[in-house]
Specification:
Strand content: 5-15%
Radius of gyration: 38 Å
Distance between the termini: 94 Å
CATH class of the largest domain: Mainly Alpha
GO molecular function: ATP binding; ATP hydrolysis activity; metal ion binding; P-type calcium transporter activity
Protein name: Calcium-transporting ATPase
Structural class: alpha/beta
Keywords: ATP-binding, Calcium, Calcium transport, Ion transport, Magnesium, Membrane, Metal-binding, Nucleotide-binding, Translocase, Transmembrane, Transmembrane helix, Transport, Vacuole
Shape: elongated
Oligomer: single chain
Number of helices: 45
CATH architecture of the largest domain: Up-down Bundle
Catalytic activity: Ca(2+)(in) + ATP + H2O = Ca(2+)(out) + ADP + phosphate + H(+)
Family: Belongs to the cation transport ATPase (P-type) (TC 3.A.3) family.
Helix content: 40-55%
Number of strands: 28
């Protein structure tokens, strides 16, 4: 009966040893209370031998001597009322009696057999382990106190722009309130409007932070609430980490992040990475607790002995079980987390915007100061002419000051913080719906400009729904569920169905095959939703499903229970295989190995001859080896994963003369015994390509994102699947990991631009690839699911972890978690990343246009006015600048990804926040708006003589507002395109905002009166003029977009790839793709650097020489100058022209035929048509 269910009093006696080595002093006090009298050292009505505080002394700090003083693993087992073989009892509720610590434990300890504790998972009822919960607590940290709404308000208010606005509000109210007392009573509205601006921005920002903080709290809770394997009542169970109890027997596997402290019970090659917990950089090998205790008892050197499993550390290698001794706040990880505080993350985009805001604020202050100085000089000049005495003169001065302050307020982009907040909040929320869980906000921005993706295959590009569809046992027997495949069905002996295939196997072969599948596996059975299923690696579950369906597999626990397993070699990504050694009934030992077929074939020297005749083997001759190689190639070419099963028998274990592990002389090293194997068979496992992945890859390629596949599969399988996905294309390079690792730097630089597939790769290969790509200036995204992928995920600009198959280590190292493990979700992340960046740029283009126009209009009208009054009052400007910009942020920052967002190349890292095209649009629109408003202000009475000055000022204000309304439509495109209405119906917010702005403007003009310094517009012509001149902002922008776009140009299209990219990055490293380019630089080979020449592909040097000839013959340098944009023509046009000219030169194409081809290639090509007959001269030059 497990100790957890014992009744009555139990005495646990501890070791009498008191003197240990210097590293383990103070062990005699291990069971005593802390000197500080901490509450967790003494627990009222403690029914266990130890308190949480006493157990802490085992690991904090690690102390083998203290472990010995406790009495070793056996004393812990009894003291915690558990059983190291069967774990806690599922029936435990309230415990009877107590356990004492006086006495000596004399029984010897026998470690459990790992293979005998398999069973169905059971959900833990809530009323279990009452006393255990009360004494040791649950494995859950107290909820972190979230910031209150008022704290978030204060944080949101601590923004430089908002502080500047606050100063302006104080000054404005200080000036406006006295004026209101003596004037119309509405002067205070100016300051109040600024206060409203601050309140709106702070309220929205704080509310969003409040919601985001709680959303991330739920996310973290969900992330930490993962499932782990424990043994309860002798059966394997999957439990939430929150349900782990002190006394549980928990399983360890590679990739696990350990959720609780404990002592290793038994294991095979367990190594842990504790760098994130203790700072220890090297992997630490763990030894079973009983061996450590024996060392203490025998006064051996304790240095280097480590049976302690530390929470928060990561299992890098091996597998085993450990006894949980501390959970929750009492564990190492819990104590660390309780002492940490999260810091607010500042994204790169926010850094750029802060710099821009500072610059704009300085410009605003400068403009306000200049205006104040100019108006103050005018005030002094006309001071003696001002009637009304000192009060009138004081009022005139106050008007000057108000105008200057208004300039400052208008210049500050108060909508900018809101736009950033809205764009990021909207994107991250919607990305969750697209199965992208953003862990770091910066990834949301960076992903939009990714230039290359290094993707895993299994589960990302494929469905990760594996099944055994083909197999060859020995040299003759085979089945193939894909027998309709012509290539497969015409090769070799008759191909059977799976059932026919199994029916012809001898009983010994069938039994051996069953053992090879069941014993050499870490997968197990569990019950989910009332259905028994296999849990574990998809490859292993595929084998187990095959065994259940075709070989009559009984419950896995039964199959494993009667087998004496003596050693396990866990799967290792470097050797691509795993193994298990068990003792047979005859007394011999058999090692079963499962892994990559071509690797296992190289280590085999025998092969089963006839699967129908038993385990008789024959030497693996060259003919047989060639036949098996052909089978592997055939399977791989059909995108099947090739897994081989081999074995070898030994008289004793470890074999005589074989090297053993340093930590355990009874365990053999793998490499010396992994030879002279007997090949049982080769299996083909199908993992279909996910639906939609080829389309997603094409979208990436169209978006300028180079997709590479990094996989552990064979080169043939990798190529086949990469071709199906559209990743491996003609001219692309596929290479195996071992060869990739041996490449020189020069060879690496030569291959990487065209490298599309790395097969048989290790995690180090992925990290190396990422490092090289980043050094070439690429923005790299990487997917990963394994523990060893963590370094690559961290090294990449954006790391994607798999939400379903990913280990906890991989998720912790990632920036974004793909909840459905689907490559198509990565494409959605790219689209959202670009949408966020575009949203900010759209708003900036609109914001700066409004600010430039408003500041210039205010400045000019105030300086030219006799009484220093601006054409737009302060309240009118605040309506335009605050309310409209706040609404504009909501309208422009909530656009979903457009259909064209993936139709352009990614922006380089050095791209400016405001591109040349945006500046052109800003300046052009500002010029139009200023021309219209100034014309109406100064000369409008000549056209509309019946309108009085107050009416004309209202028309100017109304026109100005409607120009901003229509300019919002212009700003929906920032790429110089004219289709501004595309996708507008998908953005409900945009339409609602337009209705609100227009409705608000009509109300202001109709009933605003003195508060807004307007006169009601009663004539339809007044409204018609305002709306029509406002609407003309759209055709004005269309005309503006054509400026500088009508010339043939060179397009450095391939950022970082090919001829254009080489020249572009080296010549203009800080420029964006919109920067004007001098053609003569591109066409003059003399100014090309040696490095640029070295980066060209074969044949590209001829193209550069050709440009030199074209420039000298037709003088393109005169037509293509610095004023030309590089994005108008495609490099493909230039390359196409070269192709046609070359075909004419070589006599393949006639001049007449070429005349029909060239015009189709765009405007750049048409220039060559009139001169095509002159190519005879060109032929001579070439």
């Amino acid at each position: 009966m497990p100790a957890s269910s014992n009744h009555g009093d139990t005495i646990v006696r501890t070791s009498s040893r008191s003197h240990l080595d210097g590293d383990n002093h103070g062990d005699g006090d291990s069971l005593g209370p802390e000197p500080s009298g901490e509450s967790d050292s003494e627990v009222e009505n403690n029914k266990f031998a130890f308190s949480p505080g006493q157990l802490n002394k085992l690991i904090s700090p690690k102390c083998v001597g203290a472990f010995g003083a406790f009495g070793g693993l056996r004393a812990l087992e009894k003291g915690l009322r558990t059983d190291v073989r069967s774990g806690l009892s599922m029936d435990e509720t309230v415990l009877d009696g107590t356990v004492g610590t006086d006495g000596v434990v004399a029984q010897s300890f026998m470690p459990p057999q790992l293979a005998s504790v398999e069973g169905l998972a059971v959900k833990q009822p809530q009323d279990r382990f009452v006393d255990r919960r009360r004494v040791f607590g649950i494995n859950k940290l107290p909820k972190k106190k979230l910031k209150s709404i008022w704290e978030l308000v204060w944080i949101a208010y601590n923004d430089k722009v908002l502080i500047l606005l606050s100063i302006a509000a104080v000054v404005s109210l200080a000036v406006g309130i006295p004026q209101s007392v003596r004037g119309t009573g509405v002067e205070w509205v100016e300051g109040a409007a600024i206060v409203v601006a601050i309140v709106v921005v702070v309220a929205v920002g704080a509310a969003n932070d409040w919601q985001k903080e709680r959303q991330f709290a739920k996310l973290n809770q969900k992330k930490e609430d993962r499932y782990v394997k424990v043994i309860r009542s002798g059966k394997m169970a999957q439990l939430s980490t929150y349900d782990i109890m002190v006394g549980d027997v928990m399983c360890l596997e590679p990739g696990d992040i350990i959720p609780a402290d404990g002592i290793l019970i038994d294991g095979h090659g367990v190594k842990c990475d504790e760098s994130s917990v203790t700072g220890e950089s090297s992997l630490l090998r763990k030894i079973p607790g009983d061996k450590a205790y024996r060392a203490v008892e025998q006064n051996e050197d304790l240095k280097g002995l480590d049976p302690f499993i530390v929470s928060g550390s990561k299992v890098e290698e091996g597998m085993g079980t450990f006894l949980v001794t501390a959970t929750g706040i009492h564990s190492t990880y819990g104590r660390t987390m309780m002492s940490l505080q999260d810091e607010t993350e500042i994204t790169p985009l926010q850094v750029k915007l802060n710099v821009l805001a500072d610059y704009i604020a300085k410009v605003g202050l400068t403009a306000g100061l200049i205006l104040f100085v100019v108006l103050f000089i005018k005030f002094l000049v006309r001071l003696k002419d001002i009637d009304g005495g000192a009060e009138a003169k004081g009022q005139a001065f106050l008007r000057i000051f108000i105008v200057a302050v208004t300039i400052v307020v208008v210049a500050v982009p108060e909508g900018l913080p809101l736009a950033v907040t809205l764009a990021l909040a909207f994107a991250t929320t919607r990305m969750i719906q697209d199965n992208n869980l953003v862990r770091l906000l910066r990834a949301c921005e960076t992903m939009g400009n990714a230039t290359t993706i290094c993707s895993d295959k299994t589960g990302t590009l494929t469905e990760n729904k594996m099944s055994v569809v083909a197999a060859t046992l020995g040299t003759m027997s085979r089945f193939d569920e894909q027998s309709n495949n012509t290539a497969a069905s015409t090769r070799g002996p008759a191909i059977l169905s799976a059932s026919e295939f199994v029916s012809r196997l001898s009983s010994s072969i069938r039994n051996h095959l069953l053992q090879s599948i069941v014993l050499n596996s870490t997968a197990f059975e569990a019950e989910r939703d009332g259905v028994t299923t296999f849990i574990g690696s998809k490859t292993e579950t595929a084998f187990l499903s095959f065994a259940r369906d075709q070989l009559g597999l009984r419950p896995v626990s039964e199959e494993r229970a009667n087998v004496n397993i003596v050693q396990i070699f866990p799967f290792d990504s470097s050797r691509k295989c795993m193994a298990v050694v068990f003792r047979m009934d005859c007394g011999k030992y058999r090692m079963l190995v499962k892994g990559a077929a071509e690797i296992l074939l190289r280590q085999s020297s025998q092969v089963i001859q006839h699967a129908s005749n038993g385990l008789e083997d024959v030497p693996l001759s060259g003919e047989y080896r060639a036949a098996l190689d052909t089978i592997i190639t055939d399977y791989a070419s059909r995108s099947l994963r090739c897994i081989a099963l081999v074995h070898r028998d030994f008289e004793r274990w470890p074999p005589y003369g074989t090297s053993t592990l340093e930590s355990d002389g009874e365990m053999a090293d793998f490499e010396p015994v992994f030879k002279n194997m007997t090949m049982l068979g080769i299996f083909g496992i199908q993992d279909p390509v996910r639906e939609g992945v080829p389309d997603a890859v094409r979208q990436c390629q169209r978006a300028g994102v180079f997709v590479r596949m990094v996989t552990g599969d064979s080169i043939t399988t990798a190529k086949a699947i990469a071709q199906q996905c559209g990743i491996y294309t003609p001219g692309g390079i596929a290479i195996e990991g071992p060869e990739f690792r041996q490449l020189s730097h020069d060879r690496m630089d030569e291959l990487i631009p065209n490298l599309q597939v790395i097969a048989r790769s290790s995690p180090d290969d992925k990290k190396m690839l990422v490092g090289y790509l980043k050094r070439l200036g690429e923005t790299v995204a990487v997917t990963g699911d394994g523990t060893n992928d963590a370094q690559a995920l961290k090294t990449a600009d954006v790391g994607f972890a798999m939400g379903i198959t990913g280990t906890e280590v991989a998720k912790e190292a990632s920036d974004i978690i793909i909840m459905d493990d689907n490559f198509a979700s990565i494409v959605k992340a790219i689209a959202w990343g670009r949408t966020v960046n575009d949203a900010i740029r759209k708003f900036l283009q609109f914001q700066i246009t409004v600010n430039v126009t408003a500041v210039a209009l205010t400045f000019i009208s105030a300086v030219t006015s006799n009484d220093a009054d601006s054409v737009l009052s302060a309240v009118q400007l605040l309506w335009v600048n605050l309310i409209m910009d706040t609404f504009a942020a909501l309208a422009l920052a909530t656009d979903p990804p457009s259909s064209y967002v993936l139709n352009r190349k990614p922006d380089p890292k050095s791209a400016p926040l405001i591109t040349l095209t945006m500046w052109k649009m800003i300046v052009g629109q500002a010029v139009y708006q200023l021309a219209v408003t100034l014309f109406l202000y100064f000369d409008g009475h000549f056209i509309f003589p019946e309108w009085n000055s107050r009416c004309m000022q209202t028309v100017v204000f109304n026109t100005f507002v409607f120009m901003q309304v229509f300019n919002q439509y212009n700003c929906r495109r920032i790429d110089n395109r004219t289709n501004i209405m595309e996708g507008i119906l998908r953005n409900t917010w945009f339409i609602i905002i337009q209705v609100i702005i227009i409705g608000g403007q009509v109300l202001i003009v109709s009933v605003g009166g003195k508060a807004f310094s307007v006169q009601r517009l009663d004539q339809p012509s007044q409204w018609a003029v305002s709306i029509l001149l406002g609407a003309f902002a759209i055709p004005a922008e269309i005309l503006n977009s054509g400026v500088g776009s009508g010339f043939p140009t060179v397009h450095a299209f391939e950022e970082g790839h090919g001829l254009g990219g080489v020249w572009w990055h080296n010549r203009y490293p800080s420029a964006s793709v919109d920067t004007p380019v001098p053609f003569y630089e591109f066409s003059d080979p003399e100014i090309w650097s040696e490095w640029e020449w070295s980066q060209l592909y074969p044949g590209q040097e001829e193209i550069v020489r050709y440009f030199e000839f074209v420039d000298s013959k037709w003088g393109l340098s005169k037509d293509i100058s610095f004023g030309t944009r590089v994005t108008d023509a495609r490099w493909d046009n230039i390359r196409g022209i070269w192709s046609v000219v070359t075909r004419i030169r070589d006599g393949v194409e006639s001049v007449a035929e070429a005349r029909y081809l060239l015009p189709a290639m765009g405007f750049a090509a048409k220039k060559f048509v009139p001169e095509i007959e002159g190519l005879e001269t060109f032929k001579g030059i070439m």
